[in-house]
Amino acid sequence: xxxxDKTVFVAMSGGVDSSVVAGMIKDAGYKTVGVTMxxxxxxxxxxxxxxxxxxxxxxxxxxxxxxxxxxYVFNFAADINDYIIDNFTNEYLSGRTPNPCVRCxxxxxxxxxxxxxxxxxxxxxATGHYGKIEFNENVKNFELKKAADPGKDQSYFLYSMxxxxxxxxLFPLGGLTKMEVRDLARKYxxxxxxxxxSQDICFVPKEGYKKFIEDRVxxxxxxxxxxxxxxxxxVGEHKGxxxxxxxxxxxxxxxxxxxxxxxxxxxxxNAVHVGNLTKLYSQGFMASQVNWVSMExxxxxxxxxxxxxxxxxxxxxxVTPVDGGSIRVEFAQPQKSVTPGQSAVFYDGDVVLAxxxxxxxIPCAQEDLAHMTTT
Length: 375
Hints:
By secondary structure, the protein is an alpha/beta fold. It contains 7 helices and 17 strands. The radius of gyration is 22 Å and the shape is globular. The termini are far apart.
């Protein structure tokens, strides 16, 4: 069928990327409709735009007017609280480090919003993510893939998409650089052409996540507890486990005569464990909430390239499914700062195979640490 027979709803955040997507979709001949999720979030003192604030809605509406397409706003304030913010807060209070952008894609953009626009007659939903979805003729399956520009690739944040949604999702920016996107915005005459990037986490103000959690649950919830060294000795008092994350060295407020890092946070005992750099290394980890986005669950151990946080390099690893749908991941070489609550994403070349939430690291054997630096 011709594109003119298909309807595409474009998720417009008010930024340059999604505005350009709307222009590209219209240029391709589709019936194009702009939609924006309203989360009722404002940061009056912020010098960065939010992707879901009042200004973002206004910018999205203006871009739709320039492109001459209809535009609608959906109130998802309850959804972001139920699916994202509550989880974000509870994870930090449990000594874990969450990734709300992954959950936003899973539960909101390709969850609630996807279901909403499909019910309104959408054939596709398009977003401004830098990624690709392509059909693999060899396996007769749609695959999620990395974007062409490695500096903008967002495939790490997209692994939680359900495979059944892939045929109905369009990522028009997957083959473009940011400079090319800006050029297209100028070509379309968009109001967002020179707009700066939105802040990393839309609901967290510039004061940071710690202040956000304090304001949300009250500072009294942050219970002090012991810092414990690798010999089991109490070496200080922390301010509350939500203030710390794995690998942290700064702002610990303790002096042991050598550099120390947070390597374990125990919510059961309200203790933060610190030690030298070698304590940060792990031979692997256990993970749950696994999503096999581009393939079926493997029956045997699978060799992959693994990324254990967004800004970390990929490393060789081996993924083994275990009972209950969880996985055991072992690195070819020990890796540093494996962090419970963070997402681990597994690749085969540029194909995103799967991703999962890290539950706990697997400690290295002492002989594996012999060659590691202690400073």
